Amino acid sequence: MTSTSTSADAFAGQGDNILRPRPRKPLHTQVSQLSHDANGDSDHANGTGATSVTGVSSGRSTPIPSDAPPSIQSLSTARKQVRAEQRRRIFPTIEFASRVSHFDPNSDYRDFHGFFNLFWIGLAIMAITTCLRNIKDTGYPLRVQIWGLFTVKLWHLAIADFLMVATTAVSLPLHKVFRAAPAGGVLTWAKGGMAIQSIYQAIWLAVWIVIPFWLEWTWTAQVFLLLHTMVLLMKMHSYSFYMGHLSETEKRLRALDDPATASKAPAYLYPTPENPLGTVASPKQRAVEAAAEASSEETKEISTPNEDDEIAQLREDLARELTSPMGNITYPANLTWANYLDYLCCPTLCYEIEYPRTAAIDWQNLLSKVLAVFGCIFLLTVISEEFILPALTDASIRLDPTLRAAAGDSGPLTALEALLVLAETISWLLFPFMLTFLLVFLVIFEYVLGAFAEITHFADRHFYSDWWNSTDWMEFSREWNVPVYNFLRRHVYSASRPHVGKANATVITFLISAVGHEIVMACITKKLRGYGFICQMLQLPIVMLQKTELVRGKKTLNNVCFWCSMILGLSLICSLYVLV
């Protein structure tokens, strides 16, 4: 019998022809008894030292010659000791060691995919039981109050969305005009181009916010168009402002062809995670550092760079700025319609000259994500139809004096009774909104963005981090929505920090984010109340409180507080907008 024998060979002659898998190699010596009993040792009587994987051992070892090398003798002695130790243990031994549980904070275990599958199984059970209850009550598996809204004025939505996407393309010809303008002219990006682009973006945003109200769309169509409007606004802003920066950089680089009249001001390095403070890339300072590195260790002589060295270093800084991080494309080679269309389809809000790409489309992965999108939309509609809408409708009837009178109830509610109705409604909405929040996260950041990443070969799929472990709202804002966080950090925080400082730049970033969220809520509910704006701005003092010594470092407590405030906040804001 050789070492390539199969499990069928091991059971030959026993009347059992079933092919069995090879026994798994035991992980610990304490449980290796069974393997030795079935497989034998590595020094069996074949005299070759080869191991028969599944053969039956005679239980005897080949004697070791007395003149064998010490290494062979030590190995033989070790095997004999282990076998002797195992033979003394008649009852099976269970290994005990110092280990932590999988859920322990000190555990290195991170794979909880089974709970993700359980989450979907639970949602499937909820949908099935809901359909069965509806069939019992109405004869139909689903209610149609929200489902019918999806098809109202659908062609209006399709045409408007196409025109909205098309009008963002104005940024490309505008940029070509700004680039072609002579240095120092009125139409350059630094002079008038930035103002023209900003005015166009403001008008564009106002038009596409007003159109759904003017056409009297349903709230479902309005939500879709508004969210797409916000996405395209950020894309257009990132494209135009980054390209404007590149056009000014190109003008400076070309001006250095005549150093006598060119500006020699150093390039500014904007704040990044690696360079959080932002610094001035001084050619003189860089030349001094390079000379210091090049000098010998004995002399430590540093020669002061001349003007030619400074200009050469400045040219290098500017040229590097015009080249993509991957080094394959240089501005203005990216000024094409194909590049702009590709950017619109890529799942990112920050424009770059070039992105990392995958080699091919994983069609199975793409199909699964597309199906998951429709599955999430189905579950979101079921939850809204069955749990959210009935609770809000019932509360509206109980709080509205006119509707109360029509229902046979007389007299207005007292303030305490109204608060009790509001509190009851919030409690009924807690679990549905928690599920809605999780499904919205999955459908956007995992499935929609993942599908577009697959279609465009976009290789960077880091759309979120482990935000569910967040201990404060600042951490949540960084990890829950990575594309929006990158946009705000690049185009709001980094752009404003050199002028107003770190603290004010943080406030401005939160302010703009809060205004954007309030616009979304106002368009959905057709009410301008400011509840969402106030709640988001309250995150700043909460973050400051969480950084105090009293609660800092208590991760479990802070994470529980985060989840409670998240779930309660969603239900509270929805109830206030609808009922108050």
Automatic annotation (TrEMBL):
Annotated active site: H517
Keywords assigned by UniProt, alphabetized: Acyltransferase, Endoplasmic reticulum, Membrane, Transferase, Transmembrane, Transmembrane helix
Statement: the UniProt record of this protein carries the keyword Cell cycle: no
Subcellular localization: Endoplasmic reticulum membrane
Ranges of compositional bias, category Low complexity: 47-62
Main localization, broad class: endoplasmic reticulum
GO biological process entries: ergosterol metabolic process
GO molecular function: ergosterol O-acyltransferase activity
Transmembrane residue ranges: 115-135, 155-174, 195-215, 366-384, 426-449, 560-579
Family: Belongs to the membrane-bound acyltransferase family. Sterol o-acyltransferase subfamily.
Function: Sterol O-acyltransferase that catalyzes the formation of stery esters.
Descriptive protein name: O-acyltransferase
